[in-house]
């Protein structure tokens, strides 16, 4: 079920009304049932995959908690391997099969190619797999008590606001919240609705409008000049930001209405002065997951400069592969790892003591480095990615924008400019949930009216599904 669908417009109010109408002891059951309905709107029988993963991790954590030594580690390894096996079969099997078959063909080995699996990737598999893994790891580290209530643990994995695209929550933040009684609050309702409105504005008004143009250019990239490709790449940078952060805002706002607190997943990433700072502000739940469960266990920065750079590359390569089974995503991860390593080598830091022109120059440079990596993220094939990069830097007639691009440039500039102005003037100083929670009734009505007006006048009613649903 999509947040920007008519189904959700009916689904969420009904769930909210029932949630506060039922006695507290029955609410987790309602939310679990609602989460199953929410997920079933995509492919119903894929609930079985979720159930298998939930069963394995539920019992693994109970076995891990009292165990010691090798037995304790064995249970953790079984849990992790089981989760990664599910992820590998559905997400990576065909990718590795394709590359292995091509290698055999290149070597001239006359064996029958390995057949592909004709399966569809379950929506949000990477997200709830990583969330489930964080649970057993935290139990193993003795930072979390194993959950005995199977229904509550299932709800932790399946909670519908963040089930298919995060944020990837830690058990310490979420599990206890399902035991706390939630009391209806009109002020919380208004704040949550406004944050959902802000998320829908970013998705339907900005991201979906940008996607129309980006698709038209990237789908015919060979026919476009360097300036057009560069402009489309900038548009995609804001498209993916508004698409994904918009989802996170809707998830956070809907959870807030129900009385739950989800972690912030974005913090003005395009105002970052270094790539290192960008990854502290972009997809925070994933970047912190990779740091805590991969980068630091690999050694972090504790064993010399060379191993630090190696660990950064390994972490970002896995981060790229997490996003998709494609060489494009691997190159995307490598580039980010290389930029992070280069900043350490050159001792580039996001100092705030420099003058505003220097800070602006750093923000501009960082944005362009990130935009370069987005080419590999957006393109369908590695050939397309390399072709677009080559055309941007070497194509003749670089500055020849198409006639229709000038009007699009003006319209997109207004939309993106409005977005950045709101973020810089308001959300730079105060978190989105906190800002909307502190508004007066008049201000709340004004914001709600603004979002409704923008959605009616400029929103794309038949917009794409959220980009990160594919991961």
Structural class, from helix and strand content?
A: mainly alpha
Distance between the termini: 15 Å
Q: List the helices and strands in order.
A: HHHHHHHHHHHHHHHHHH
Number of strands: 0
Q: In total, how many domains does the architecture comprise?
A: 2
Could you list the spans in which at least 5 consecutive residues all have pLDDT below 50?
Answer: none
Strand content: under 5%
Q: Radius of gyration in whole Å, from Cα? A: 23 Å
Assembly state: single chain
DSSP helical segment count: 18
Helix percentage range: over 70%
Shape: globular
Largest sheet: none
Q: Could you report the average pLDDT, rounded to the nearest whole number?
A: 88
Please outline the helices and strands.
Elements: H1 6-21, H2 24-40, H3 47-64, H4 69-107, H5 125-140, H6 150-158, H7 171-174, H8 186-218, H9 226-258, H10 275-281, H11 284-298, H12 305-323, H13 327-345, H14 356-378, H15 382-394, H16 403-427, H17 432-437, H18 441-458
Helix pairs in contact: 1-2, 2-6, 3-4, 3-5, 3-6, 4-5, 8-9, 8-16, 8-18, 9-14, 9-15, 9-16, 11-12, 12-13, 13-14, 14-15
């Amino acid at each position: 079920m999509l947040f920007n669908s008519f189904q959700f417009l009916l689904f969420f109010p009904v769930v909210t009304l029932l949630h506060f109408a039922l006695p507290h002891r029955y609410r987790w059951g309602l939310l679990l049932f609602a989460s199953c309905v929410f997920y079933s709107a995509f492919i119903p029988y894929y609930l079985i995959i979720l159930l298998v993963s939930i069963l394995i991790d539920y019992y693994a954590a109970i076995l891990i908690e009292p165990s010691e030594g090798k037995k304790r580690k064995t249970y953790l390894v079984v849990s992790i391997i089981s989760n990664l096996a599910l992820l590998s079969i559905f997400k990576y099997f065909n990718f590795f099969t394709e590359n292995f078959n091509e290698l055999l063909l290149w070597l001239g080995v006359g064996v029958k190619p390995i057949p592909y699996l004709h399966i569809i990737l379950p929506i949000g598999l990477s997200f709830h797999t990583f969330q489930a893994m964080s649970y057993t790891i935290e139990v193993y580290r003795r930072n979390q008590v194993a959950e005995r209530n199977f229904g509550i643990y299932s709800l932790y994995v399946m909670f519908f606001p963040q089930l298919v695209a995060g944020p990837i929550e830690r058990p310490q933040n979420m599990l206890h919240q399902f035991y706390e009684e939630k009391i209806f609050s009109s002020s919380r309702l208004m704040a949550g609705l406004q944050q959902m409105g802000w998320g829908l504005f970013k998705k339907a008004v900005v991201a979906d409008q940008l996607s129309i143009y980006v698709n038209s250019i990237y789908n015919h990239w060979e026919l476009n000049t360097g300036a057009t490709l560069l402009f489309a790449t900038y548009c995609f940078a804001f498209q993916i930001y508004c698409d994904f952060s918009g989802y996170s805002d809707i998830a956070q706002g809907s959870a807030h209405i129900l009385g739950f607190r989800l972690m912030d997943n974005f913090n003005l990433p395009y105002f970052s002065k270094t790539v290192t700072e960008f990854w502290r502000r972009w997809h925070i739940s994933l970047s912190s997951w990779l740091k805590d469960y991969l980068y630091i266990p690999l050694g972090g920065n504790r064993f010399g400069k060379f191993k630090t750079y190696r660990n950064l590359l390994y972490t970002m390569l896995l981060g790229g592969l997490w996003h998709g089974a494609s060489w494009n995503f691997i190159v995307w991860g490598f580039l980010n790892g290389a930029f992070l390593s280069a900043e350490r080598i050159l001792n580039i830091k996001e100092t705030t003591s420099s003058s505003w022109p220097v800070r602006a120059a750093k923000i501009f440079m960082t944005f362009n480095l990130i935009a370069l990596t987005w080419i590999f993220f957006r393109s369908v094939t590695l050939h397309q990615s390399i072709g677009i990069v080559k055309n941007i830097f070497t194509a003749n007639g670089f500055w020849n924008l198409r006639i229709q691009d000038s009007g699009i440039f003006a319209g997109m500039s207004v939309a993106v400019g409005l977005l950045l102005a709101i973020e810089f003037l308001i959300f730079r100083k105060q978190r989105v949930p906190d800002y909307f929670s502190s508004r007066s009734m008049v201000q709340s009505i004004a914001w709600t009216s603004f979002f409704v007006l923008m959605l009616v006048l400029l929103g794309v009613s038949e917009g794409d599904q959220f980009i990160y649903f594919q991961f």
